[in-house]
Amino acid sequence: MELRPYQITALDNLWSALTTESNVLLEAACSAGKTLLFSKIIRYLLGEYPSYRVLVLLDREELVRQTRDKIIEVAPELLLDIGIVCASVAEEKTLDRRITVASRQSLVKCLGRMAPVQLIVCDECHLMAVPRDDDPEPDQFGTIIGALRGYNPKTRLLGVTATPYRLGDGYIYGMRNAKGCCPYFEDVHHRITVSELLAGGYLAPLKGKTVAKDGLLARLLSVPMTAGEYNLGELSDVMCQGTHITSAVDVWTEHAMDRKKTLVFGVTIEHAEKLTDAFNSRGISAIAIHSDMDDITNYVNMQALRNGGAKVFCSVGKLTTGMDVPDIDCILMARATKSTALYKQMIGRGQRVAE
Fold first, then answer.
1. Distance of alpha carbon 253 from the chain centroid
2. How many C-beta atoms lie closer than 10 Å to residue 186's C-beta?
3. 3-state class of 299 per DSSP?
4. pLDDT tens column, 299-331
5. Angle at 153 between CA 141 and CA 164, to 5 degrees
6. Given 120, 128, 162, 338, which residue has the most CB atoms within 10 angstroms?
7. What does the alpha-carbon distance between residue 65 and residue 90 come to, in Å, rounded to a whole number?
């Protein structure tokens, strides 16, 4: 697999940093090829040190499948060295392979059986809670990292993200964060920017339309905040009103009827379902994808997204990070957010280059 010039530079810098530092951070814009980059690092590491072990730690099952497939694509010789720890992907939790690809939710339950590793790759590491000096209880990511460093204090951590900040915490590195934060990362060790990718033709430029129904902005001002973000229940009550459901379909019909594959981001599962019903009632094929569906239904719906089984796909948070479907050609933001990271992750789903 031929690397782009900026990817070669990134690999050199990241490898150099990993040889000297415990925690290394890559900030790379959506579609820069983050999974490809850390798959190359894993391949090189295990080629140089055959006895080493690597954990790739992920937030949800869809990313587990996607990451496993990318590692195999990059390094087919490692096919039999990959173990999966994710209840919805594999019935058996395989913890003894040279590479473990795991969801945090499944791995945290069987940490006592996990052998030491030399490298932890945390994809979408902005989802990790930033440790605080006044809160000794770590989240699941922190629990896993702490346990594995208890087995092997020299374990390296490679964090990768397009958005190295968290609502309420500030940046996940350095000192530009909320009082009491103790980030894992001292700095960004390599950065790949949107501007760089656009200039190289590696990202699709966005064309935006802003349409707000009369009274919507005033209603949003009345929605209370919870931890710096709109209260989702209150926001959902506003956006589930018939006028705003209808306006979402109207604006798509006016501006995006020629689009082949649209992602619609809603506030809650109820909102996503109502949007799906509204599109279908107008003769526009739409499918919902969210966490309240069983694994088989979600798998079938994700395959429909990849294969073009409908024109519109309505979701909440399930498709915001890491999801790789290059031919998405429209993003409909049917929700408001105060989170820069969430906003960039959502619109980034539409910036991959495809014919």
1. 29
2. 14
3. helix
4. 899 899 999 999 999 999 777 765 678 899 999
5. 40
6. 128
7. 10
Q: Token digits for 213?
A: 């129904």
Cα-Cα-Cα-Cα dihedral of 235, 236, 241, 243, to 10°?
A: 70
Q: Which of 63, 45, 66, 65 is CA-nearest to residue 54?
A: 45
Tokens 């096919």, residue? 79
Partner residues linked to 333 by β-bridges: 265
237-287 confidence digits (pLDDT tens): 999 998 899 999 999 999 999 999 999 999 999 999 999 999 999 999 999
The count of other CB atoms within 10 Å of the CB of residue 91 is 7
- Supply the DSSP symbol for 106: H
Least Cα distance to 120 among 56, 187, 46 occurs for 56
Cα 217 from Cα 225, distance rounded (Å): 15
Write the Ramachandran bin of 62: left for phi over 0, alpha for psi from -120 to 50, otherwise beta.
alpha
**In the block, residue with structure tokens 């390094």:** 75
Nearest Cα to 328, choosing from 307, 352, 302?
352
Pairing between strand 262-265 and 330-333? parallel
Three-state secondary structure call for residue 206: coil
Segment (H or E) for 344: helix 340-348
